[in-house]
Amino acid sequence: MPRSPTLYNVNPPFVPPHHSHNKSVTINHDSVFEMERRFGFYLVFLPLLMLFFLSAVVTIEAGGWVPIKDVEDRHVREVAQYAVSEHGKLKHLQLKLDKVVEGETQVDSGITYRLVLTVEEKGAGTKDYTVVVVEENAKLHLKSFKKVVIKSESSHRAM
Prior knowledge:
GO terms for molecular function: cysteine-type endopeptidase inhibitor activity. This is Cystatin domain-containing protein. The chain crosses the membrane at residues 39-60. Keywords: Membrane, Protease inhibitor, Thiol protease inhibitor, Transmembrane, Transmembrane helix. The chain is rod-shaped. The protein is an alpha+beta fold. It has a 5-stranded antiparallel sheet. Strands 1-2 form a two-stranded antiparallel ribbon. The protein has 2 domains: 7-60; 66-156, Nuclear Transport Factor 2, Chain: A (Roll), CATH 3.10.450. The protein is 35% helix and 35% strand. Strand 6 (125-136) and strand 7 (139-147) form a beta hairpin. The longest helix is centred in the N-terminal third of the chain and has 32 residues, at 29-60.
C-alpha cells in the first residue's frame, strides 16, 4: 500500500534577524525516504566499485613479467624500432629491424619492455638480440642491447 505523504511543519533552527519568526519549512516525508534509499544504495555500491578498481591496480602493480600476446602490435614495433635505431646510432652501425620474435613487459614506475629481435646489419646478415627499453612519461630509454648467445650441447658437456 503506497504511503501518503506526511507533511511536517518545522521551524528553522536559525532565523536571520531580518526575517520573521513565523516562517516554516515543509518537508515531504516521501522525498526524505527516497534520499535514505539512495544513500543506502551508494553506501553499498561505492565500496564495491572501489574494491574492483583496487584489485585491478594491485594486479598491474605486482611487477611480474607478462608475455606480450601480439608482438606485431604497432606500439611494440615502435619500441623495437627505437631500440634498433638508438643502438645503431651509439655503435655507428647501419641496423634494420627485421622482426620482433617475442617479448614481455613489466609495470613499475613505467613500462619495461624485454624483447627478442631479429636485426639485419648491413653487410653482416641477421642476428637475434635481447633488448630492454623503459618507457616513462611517454619517453623511451634503451637500457640494454645484447646479442642472443645460444649455447650448444657440446659446450655444456665440456663444462
